[in-house]
Write a structure and sequence with these properties.
CATH class: Alpha Beta
Number of domains: 1
Distance between the termini: 25 Å
CATH topology: Rossmann fold
Number of strands: 7
CATH superfamily: NAD(P)-binding Rossmann-like Domain
Order of helices and strands: EHEHEHEHEHHEHHHHE
CATH architecture: 3-Layer(aba) Sandwich
Shape: globular
Strand content: 15-25%
């Protein structure tokens, strides 16, 4: 997975799974652009300690003007965009409740970030990727679209939409040499989950362990290899696919 000198935007890359993805892409030689609504300074400091060339851009992925500005800033700083990882998404802060009790504003916010965000970023990078004649887009979806857990319909619906979008985008972008794939993790003990969702650790984590063929907790490091693979030349003829990375709970 030689990604030397390729420019990779990772949304939601300032922390959690996004930061681990950025770190792994950097280990394979990519110049990583950490795109996040949060401050990117800490992430950049870590990546630079690891020897990764890294740039930070601030953006709200649900806002078209903010996305366009982030992409323009990336092009100005790096000259090209080879890889987009649509990782930014709402999960740890969302309400868990029967769907008839979900707040409509929260429903719309989850869809704005988890669905509209990848749409806006993918739309914004299409032109520079088309001009280069190649590109890689990886959408981070969720194995929950196959298991349909209760009490989180807004999240599952958003990831189902993103999975379907992956296929349609692959059809439309393939003529330009751009591959579009998805990675669908299972329940992962990310830093966000560990910090904000202690209430889920004994229930969701135990349920996930029991369902897996590989009966252990899933960590962010279990996801990054699949993402880097799909960004590299070894995956050049793979597009429109969803790779489930969940220790064998879902087999399809």
């Amino acid at each position: 997975m030689d990604l030397q000198d390729r420019v990779a935007i990772v949304t939601g890359g300032a922390s959690g799974i996004g930061l681990e993805i950025a770190s792994d892409l950097g280990r394979h030689g990519a110049h990583v652009v950490v795109c996040d609504l949060a401050d990117t300074a800490g992430a950049l400091a870590r990546l630079e300690r690891e020897g990764t060339r890294a740039t930070g851009v601030r953006a709200d992925v649900s806002d078209p003007a903010s996305v366009d500005a982030a992409v323009a800033e990336t092009l100005a700083a790096c000259g090209r965009i080879d890889i987009l990882v649509n990782n930014a998404g709402l999960f740890t802060d969302i309400t868990r409740a029967p769907f008839d009790q979900l707040d409509l504003a929260e429903w719309k916010r989850v869809l704005d970030v988890n669905v509209t965000g990848p749409f806006l970023l993918s739309r914004a990078v299409w032109a520079p990727m088309r001009a280069a004649g190649a590109g890689r887009i990886v959408n981070i979806t969720s194995a929950s679209i196959f298991t349909a857990p209760p009490l989180m319909l807004h999240y599952v619906a958003s990831k189902g939409a993103l999975t379907a979008m992956t296929k349609s985008m692959a059809r439309e972008m393939g003529a330009d040499g751009i591959t579009v794939n998805a990675v669908a993790p299972g329940f992962t003990l990310s830093s966000g989950v560990m910090e904000k969702r202690q209430d889920m650790l004994e229930t969701a984590a135990e349920r996930a362990r029991t369902a897996r063929a590989l009966r252990r907790d899933q960590a962010p490091g279990d996801i990054v290899g699949a993402v880097s693979f799909l960004c590299g030349d070894a995956a050049a003829f793979i597009t429109g696919q969803t790779l489930v990375v969940d220790g064998g709970a879902v087999m399809h």
